[in-house]
Amino acid sequence: MRPLLSALTRIHKPPVRAGCRRCLDSCAGGGGGGGLLALRDDALVVGSSRELVRSLGPHVEVRTAFVTEQEEEALLRELEPGLKKRRYEFNHWDDAIHGYRETERARWGAECEEVLNRVRSIAFSEGCVLLGPVHVLDLDKTGYIKPHIDSVKFCGSTIAGLSLLSDSIMRLVKEHANNEWLDLLLPRRSLYILRDQARYNFTHEILKDEESMFNGQRVPRQRRISVICRNLPG
Ligand code: OGA
Ligand code: MN
Q: Each residue of 151-170: pLDDT tens digit?
């Protein structure tokens, strides 16, 4: 199969032992969202220390209910036919991802384009050049993403992703300091944004179903489709 640009965007970091948490740094910042929403969404981030949650906070953002049920349906209607033609990949053990299929999409119908424009306007500043096609990653229920940092050669400072079909946990672990970590609860239909430190100095991963816990509470992982916008390196 033609290697996707998206496959080139990940640099797999040595696997982290189960239960071991490297660190992370990133949290959203910017972008307002209003006091109540900000407060509520704070509960979607836990970390190895308050200091880390506070310092990474500006570089990591999770926005719940970013996509309506109807918009999720529109996105799935558009994506499913193409995805179904591909097989889930389970055998590439060295790869950063296990149990996935993926594609890229440059042209979208009006309703989907509207959603993506919302993502772009919130996550990226004006004048920032985005990677043309949007990356679509379909994780099987048994699939997961191992700790990695997106290639600095192909991707810029910001990664913005929609989570469809399932809740999931994204774990950020600081490179070379794996006792510093953040867990993000990514509810179905939420948007997450990783910027700067969170994107460059922390690995990110999506936990497998068996390990999918947030703050001590189990968060079942179903099949999950993410729709990811990135910018180009500056
Ligand atoms: C990736 C990645 C996260 C997601 O494809 O590099 O980290 O939300 N994806 O699927
Ligand atoms: Mn990544």
A: 999 999 999 999 999 999 99
The rounded distance, in Å, linking the Cα atoms of 133 and 121 is 16
* Residue 35 CA to ligand 2 centre (angstroms): 29
Token pair for 152: 């600095």
Residue with structure tokens 């948007």?
191
Q: What is the pTM of this model?
A: 0.86
Ligand 1: does its nearest atom lie under 6 Å from the Cβ of 150?
Answer: yes
pLDDT tens, residue by residue, 118-153: 999 999 998 899 999 999 999 999 999 999 999 999
Structure tokens at 103: 């594609």
| Long-range contacts of the stretch 5-9 (C-beta < 8 A, 24+) | 5/104, 5/131, 5/133, 5/154, 6/102, 6/104, 6/135, 6/137, 7/95, 7/102, 8/151, 8/154, 9/135, 9/150, 9/151, 9/154, 9/155, 9/230
Q: What is the mean pLDDT of the chain?
A: 86
Mark the residues whose beta carbon lies below 5 A from ion ligand 2. Answer: 150
Q: Among 106, 158, 107, which residue's Cα sits nearest to residue 132? A: 106
**Nearest residue (CA) to ligand 1, atom 4:** 226
Cα dihedral 139/96/48/25 (nearest 10): -100
